[in-house]
Each structure stands twice: as C-alpha cells, then as structure tokens.
C-alpha cells in the first residue's frame, strides 16, 4: 500500500513537471526537498530522544545501578559499526567533505542510501550516548535527498547542486528551527559559486524545513534560549576577550579532535577499536557526565545556572565543594570534549562536530563569565557570554561566521545580541583563518587531491575527472624492438607518439614520429636499430594521483599538448590538453544552462 502511494506521488510530480516551466518546477522542487529534509531532521531528533528516554528513564532505572549507563556508548558504537559493515559496505560518506567532494568531482550525485543511512547510524550512536552531534548527519541526509530528487527528474548539474544545498539548508533549519542559519550554512560551507537567483530555492527550502520542525518538535527537544539580560555596550571589552579566546579554543578543539580521531582510525582491528572506544568513553563519562550524547541539556542547565546537574553523577562530585572547584570542573569538561568526539567518530560511530563546537563554546563562555565573577567583577551577563562564545567556536570550527551569528540570534528569538555576536565571531574567524586558512573539511579534500575554490573557473576545472580523459589507444613498443617492427606499428596507428615500455609495462621513454623520419626512410637501418636507441626519456610525466591544477601547470611549463600518464611508474596512457579544455568548456556551458 505504501509503495502504491509512493508511485502515485511520483506520478503526481511527473504531471506537475510536465505542466511547469524549469524555474517554476525548481521552486516546487525546493519546497519538496526542504520539507523532506526538515522531516528527516525531525525524525532523527525524535529517534534519538526516544532511545534516550527508553534506555535512561525506563530500562536502566529498573536495575538501580548508578553507573550502568556508561556501557551504552560501547553498545551504540558496536551497533553502528555492525550496521555500517553489514548494510552499507563499511562506508557512510560522513562529513561535509564528502558532500563537497560530490559537488566538485561527482557531478553533485550522492548515493541513494545516504538518504536514510545517517538517520539510523547517527541516531544509534548519539542515542546510546556517543559524544557527537546530529547536525552533520542531518546535512548529509538532506543533501542526499536533494541530489537524488534532482537525479530522478533529470535536472542539470547546476539545479542538482542547488537542490543538494537546499536539502542541507532545510536540514539545518529543521534541526534548530533556524531558517536563516540554514540558508547561510548552505552558502558558506557547501556552495562555492552562487547567483542571486539561487537564493529563492534556498529560502523556500529552509523555510519549509523550519516550518516542519516548528509544527512537530517540542521546545525541550530543540536548542532554545531566552535572553535574561540585554546587550550592554560597557561589556564590549569582555566580548573582544571572548572572541580572542574562542578563536584559540577553536584551534585547540579541531587539532586535538583530529589527532584523537586519526589515532583511533589507525587501529587495524575494527572490534578492538570499538572496545577501546567504549572503555575510553565510559572512563571519561564517569568523571565528566555532561560529555554523554549531544550535551544540549547540560548547556541549558548551565545557562539557567543550575550547576549541580553538571557534576552530580560524577565520581568527582564529592571533591567539588566550592566555586573554584566548579570552575575547574567546567573548564576540564570542555577541554576533554574534543577527545570524546574524536573517540566516538574515530572508532566508527556516526555524528558530527556541529553540536560539540556549540558545547565547547557554551562551556568556554560560562568559564570566562564565572571566572570574572569570582574575581569580583559585577553585572556579568553569564547567559550572554555563553551564547556569544557558542557563536565564536562554531565560527572557528566551520569557518562560517554568518551561520554562527544568525544561528545564535535565531535560537534566542531575536537580534538583541547581534553586535556582540558579530564582534566575537569576526575575531574568532580572523584568528582561526590565520593558522588554518582552510576549514577542516576543505583540508580533508586537499589530502585527497581535491581543490575547492571560490573562483568559478577554478571550481569547474576542479570537477574534471582526469581518469575518464586518459587515452589508451597508443601502440606500445618494447625497448629491444627493431625499427622494422616499429614502422609496421606506425602504419597501423593514427597516432604520432609511441610509448616504450618494458615487459612489466613500466614507461621507459617515448618515440615521436617527427624524430625518426630519417631512420624510417633508410631501410638499411630496419634490422640494425632498436627502439631504445630511438626513444627519448619524457621530460614531463603525469602521475595518476595528481590533481587537475598540477597537471595543467605541467602542460604550461612543458609546452606539450600530450603527456604520458603513469601510476607508480607503470604506463597508463596519454592525456591531451585539448581534451581537458574541451571537457572544461562543456562543463562551463552546463553550469549556466
């Protein structure tokens, strides 16, 4: 029955597709994608909330064992790894870098399974207490919805990319009930080239996702704050200090997370990795319970100054007897959060760094505010410090200042803090940008040989897949092959270049028709001259692992139009500069259609 209804829905969309022009159908599509992405965000949030409620409030209370919940992350990560390996071939395409790679190299096509895989796996990871966030899986899910919808209706690359971004915008908007933040996230993190006409679909998709969230999700599930103190311009020096510290803490969080994440990924045994992660997280949670799950509940408690909830279940609770001990505990919590996230994701759990960056920022803001109060400073707006610091670390981690500013503005229900948000985010961004010119996601792409650029020409050039352009219809010649045999191959070939390879197919040199014309017309040499006497070692070779920009530089510097391609020294084929330029021209035309 459900499949029949789905078939009717597809037929209905097909009918609408036939009746509307391209621009109208794109607007209609953005509504569907936004609603679907927002619904995915709602489902994931409710899924995690239901798991937590069932495990923590219904099942574990029966056993009346205080620290039994510490075993849950191990179980959650193990289940996630099992599902990933059993049903998704061990690959979930996690993180915004996989989406950027799809835009740059895969024509904005994302796997169909990505529309649901992240909901199951991240829901289990975070629902069972893994220390990560749900926003990155929501973005991946929404992007996949937009990409596969565009694929189904055979939309152009430009429209497909736009709907992919619309899905991400709808997902973020649904996760926070923050439509403007959803749009800005799509623009700052995903889209390298955008025109004014693209704003309308993003606006509609983001508004649709936020509307679904508003209708279904309750306020206690969403991250929402009510301002208790208005902005006071006398506190601007404090906000400058927060911006400076937020930038440095963002760098610390990203660097420490990457080290821990990388260390766990190096462990070859999958299940040993899971076991070590479970034991490590259980140990950290025993000392710092707020690291469990997303941590949004503890942020709300801290903003309400309900501090005992932060450490009441900690083994250190008996030692926290004064305000300075509380301060030290809170500071240690956000410093260790980076390790908890790295352990969760590096061991095979699914999630993202969006919520952790907000968590670190909230605890940092509270630490600064509480320290100033203990030092005797009066009228410190604790909640405001928490909120602007959240924006500072989110901006620093993702290199997305506008997203950070407007997300916090929207979850507080107004723009009372817009000035301090701008101050803190801009300072944090400048500091992080100085030490890390690229965001973590872009750095991952560069390690894979993929370049993301804000320049349209460079961006389109970066989308070209070199392997598909390699020409392999060249007659190969062996080094001891006589000139007579070479001439016979020349007769049967339409090429004027011939690679010389050994028996293992390693490239030794090349023979060009222009360089052997004299020998070809001297038949006395046919049985006396061999290939290695005629060949020339190529001054420039292209390695299969090199990106398009290095390759184009080699063409320019060598002045050649055809260069041999090798893979670890083995001959692969030849690459033509003209074929690259033709491919670039075609993709440029497609991008503006």
CATH topology of the largest domain: Clc chloride channel
* Record field, number of beta strands: 5
Mean pLDDT: 88
What is the name of the CATH superfamily of the largest domain? Clc chloride channel
Broad structural category: mainly alpha
Structural account:
There is one protein chain. The chain folds into three domains: about 220 residues, Clc chloride channel (Orthogonal Bundle); about 220 residues, Clc chloride channel; about 130 residues, Roll (CBS-domain). The protein has 25 helices and five strands. The radius of gyration is 29 Å and the shape is elongated. Strand 4 and strand 5 form a beta hairpin. With about 600 residues, it is mainly alpha-helical. The strands form two sheets. Strands 3-4-5 form a three-stranded mixed sheet. It has a two-stranded antiparallel sheet with strand order 1-2. Helix 14 runs antiparallel to helix 15.
């Amino acid at each position: 029955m459900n499949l029949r209804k789905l078939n009717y829905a597809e037929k209905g969309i097909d009918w609408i597709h036939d009746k509307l022009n391209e621009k109208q159908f794109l607007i209609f599509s953005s509504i569907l994608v936004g609603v679907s992405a927002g619904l995915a965000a709602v489902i994931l949030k409710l899924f995690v909330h239901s798991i937590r409620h069932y495990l923590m409030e219904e099942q574990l209370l029966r056993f009346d064992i205080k620290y039994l919940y510490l075993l849950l992350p191990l179980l959650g990560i193990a289940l996630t790894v099992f599902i990933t390996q059993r049903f998704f071939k061990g690959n979930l395409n996690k993180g915004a870098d996989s989406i950027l790679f799809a835009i740059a190299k895969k024509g904005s096509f994302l796997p169909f399974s990505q529309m649901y895989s992240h909901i199951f796996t991240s829901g289990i990871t975070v629902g069972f207490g893994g220390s990560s966030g749900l926003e990155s899986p929501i973005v991946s899910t929404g992007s996949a919805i937009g990409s596969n919808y565009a694929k189904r209706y055979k939309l152009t690359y430009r429209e497909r990319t736009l709907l992919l971004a619309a899905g991400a915008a709808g997902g973020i908007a649904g996760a926070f009930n923050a439509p403007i933040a959803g749009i800005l996230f799509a623009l700052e993190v995903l889209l390298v080239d955008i025109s004014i006409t693209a704003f309308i679909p993003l606006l509609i998709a983001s508004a649709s996702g936020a509307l679904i969230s508003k209708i279904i999700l309750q306020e206690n599930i969403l991250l929402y704050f009510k301002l208790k103190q208005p902005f006071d311009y006398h506190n601007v020096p404090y906000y400058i200090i927060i911006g400076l510290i937020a930038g440095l803490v963002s760098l610390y969080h990203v660097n420490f997370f990457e080290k821990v994440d990388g260390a766990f990924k190096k462990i070859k045994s999958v299940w040993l990795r899971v076991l070590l992660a479970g034991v490590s997280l259980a140990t950290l949670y025993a000392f710092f319970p707020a690291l469990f799950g997303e941590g949004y509940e503890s942020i709300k408690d801290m903003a309400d100054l309900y501090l005992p909830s932060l450490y009441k279940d900690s083994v250190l609770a008996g030692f926290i007897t004064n305000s300075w001990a509380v301060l030290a505990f809170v500071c240690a919590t956000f410093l260790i959060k980076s390790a908890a996230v790295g352990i969760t994701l590096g061991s095979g759990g699914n999630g993202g760094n969006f919520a952790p960056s907000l968590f670190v920022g909230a605890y940092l803001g509270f630490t600064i505010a509480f320290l100033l109060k203990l030092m005797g400073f009066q009228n410190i707006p604790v909640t405001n410090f928490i909120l602007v610091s959240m924006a500072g670390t989110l901006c620093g981690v993702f290199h997305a200042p506008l997203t950070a500013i407007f997300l916090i503005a929207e979850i507080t229900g107004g723009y009372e803090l817009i000035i301090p948000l701008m101050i803190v985010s801009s300072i944090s961004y400048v500091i992080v940008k100085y030490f890390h010119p690229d965001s973590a996601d872009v750095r991952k792409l560069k390690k894979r040989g993929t370049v993301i650029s804000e320049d349209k020409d460079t961006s389109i050039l970066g989308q070209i897949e070199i392997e598909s352009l390699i020409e392999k219809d060249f007659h190969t010649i062996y080094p001891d092959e006589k000139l007579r045999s070479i001439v016979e191959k020349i007769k049967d070939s339409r090429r004027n270049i011939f690679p010389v390879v050994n028996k293992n197919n390693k490239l030794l040199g090349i023979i060009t028709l222009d360089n052997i014309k004299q020998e070809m017309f001297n038949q006395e040499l046919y049985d006396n001259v061999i290939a290695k006497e005629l060949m020339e070692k190529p001054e420039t070779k292209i390695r299969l692992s090199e990106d398009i920009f290095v390759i184009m530089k080699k063409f320019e510097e060598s002045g050649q139009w055809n260069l041999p391609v090798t893979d670890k020294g083995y001959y692969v084929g030849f690459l033509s500069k003209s074929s690259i330029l033709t491919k670039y021209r075609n993709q440029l035309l497609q991008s503006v259609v």
